[in-house]
Specification:
- This protein has a 13-stranded mixed β-sheet with strand order 10-7-8-9-11-12-1-2-3-4-5-6-13.
- By secondary structure, it is α+β, with helices and mostly antiparallel strands.
């Protein structure tokens, strides 16, 4: 039971990372505004507040978990904070394990597949169509345009991937802000591709139709059509968009918070199995505390299968944790 709750906690962390990285990747990065606050509804009963200042971004998700994440690009790490238990956890942006028990650059990954392993797979054609409807209206002091997109993924019979169709209907504005974290934005993949099993690799062919300009999304409805006939519809809406000076204290660990090594401790989940090495004691400034090691212990949450974002969303709604002690 505790293991299930632990996995759901990790899924919620993954959901928040996916949601915030997607918003950043869709925004313009031309420097026009340095401090930004964005409050966004991600779905029924789920809101995220995003603060951006220079090389740092703070994301707050309300709810039972009371989760806050701070992306510190200048220190190449992400802080996950539990306001209820006054604890925090550190994860690296690059996912490289530099703990005493790991080899730098390995990231704790499984050994690579031998080069002689036979590869199988087929062809996956992805066609994205972007259409400007011509509709315009004012939103947050900007002239917004309505853009519809359709992404059709067609897989050959011998392909590892599956057919899928995704449609979006959204309103976009030319809002630009400065966020100095190029590595994080570069890692974001806007085309949804399922993880492929070992020994299977498809040839992916992309095609884009239309030249309509997207921009910063303020209201977008996405519908996913699966091969078995199932559909999933989600709506993301910006509720508040403000520009003004933000305190630097929002983007660091609050005084008096305790460093923990994993999500079990972060959310006060007892007796869940853990095999991660204990991290050294690190002060909120990012420097090792007295007597601590100079290298940080790392753990990373990875997508465990197909449609990881959707699974994370479903899991987070059912998750339950023990009361704070």
């Amino acid at each position: 039971m505790n293991k299930i709750v632990f996995l759901k906690s990790a899924a919620l962390i993954l959901l928040t990372v996916c949601a915030t990285s997607g918003l950043v990747a869709n925004a313009q990065t031309t420097p026009t505004t340095t401090d930004v606050k964005i409050r966004q509804r991600m779905g029924p009963g789920m809101e995220i507040v995003l603060y951006i200042k220079g090389e740092r971004m703070r994301s707050e998700m309300a709810g039972d978990f009371g989760m806050t994440t701070i992306l510190q690009c200048d220190l190449k790490r992400t802080l996950t904070i539990n306001e209820k238990t006054k604890t925090y956890m550190i994860m690296p942006i690059d996912g490289v394990n530099t703990s005493a028990n790991g080899v730098a650059g390995s990231g704790g990954a499984n050994p690579p597949v031998a080069a002689s392993t036979a590869q199988r797979g087929g062809v996956v054609n992805i066609t994205q169509t972007i259409t400007d409807t011509g509709e315009r209206k004012e939103m947050f002091g900007f002239m917004a345009r309505r853009i519809k997109t359709s992404l059709v993924k067609t897989a050959s019979p011998d392909a590892c991937d599956k057919d899928q169709k995704i449609e979006t209907d959204g309103w976009y504005i030319d809002f630009q802000y400065r966020f100095e974290c190029p590595d994080q934005v570069k890692k974001h993949q806007p085309i949804p591709l399922r993880p492929q099993p070992p020994g299977c690799r498809d040839e992916v062919r992309f095609k884009t139709i239309g030249t309509a300009k997207l921009g910063f999304p303020v209201l977008v409805t996405t519908t996913i059509y699966e091969p078995d006939g199932r559909t999933t519809t989600t709506t993301q809406e910006v509720l508040e968009l403000s520009r003004g000076p933000l305190s630097a204290t929002l983007f660091d660990v609050p005084e008096g918070y305790r460093l923990v090594k994993n999500a079990q401790e972060l959310y006060n989940i007892s007796a869940a199995p853990a095999d991660d090495a204990s991290p050294p004691s690190i002060s909120p400034s990012g420097k090792p505390a007295a007597g601590g090691s100079s290298s940080e212990s790392v753990w990373a949450t990875k997508d465990s299968g197909d449609d990881g974002f959707a699974k994370a969303m479903r899991s987070s709604k059912r998750a339950r944790i023990s009361p704070s002690q």
